[in-house]
Write a structure and sequence with these properties.
globular, Immunoglobulin-like
Amino acid sequence: MALHAVGAAILGLGLFASAGACAGGIEVKTPWTRATVAGASVAAGYLAIENKGAEADRLTGAATAAAEKVEIHEMSMEGDIMKMRALPEGIEIKPGETVTLKPGGIHLMIFGLKQPLIPGATVPVTLSFARAGQIAVVLPVQSVGATTPAPATESEPPSISY
């Protein structure tokens, strides 16, 4: 199926938003990613997930047309060593809780980029939840050294087709 047809279908459902998205009591806020240097094949995605529902939910996976695969990862300190590990079971979001995916912690690891990520562009990502189902979001691409998402603006960043 053509990517444009999938994007149009998602837009028609009202689930596609660069500022965030909401479904089944799950609200996704402040999605973003960093630009990559030439030749890089990996990137990371960040966002906040708030569970406004009455039951726990779980982020179980993600996908993007911009890369071969997306995994949920966690970075943590073990003594003086920073380690990263995949979280194949995903992450639980309890009712009333917000889980923030951020640099140095839990994040989306994006493998096999099809092209470099450039500042001002966007990366479409579909998040999969155990209860809420799929939620499509757009990660605006910030500068290579960004540590937080850019402040929200009235204008939408340009899109890159994958």
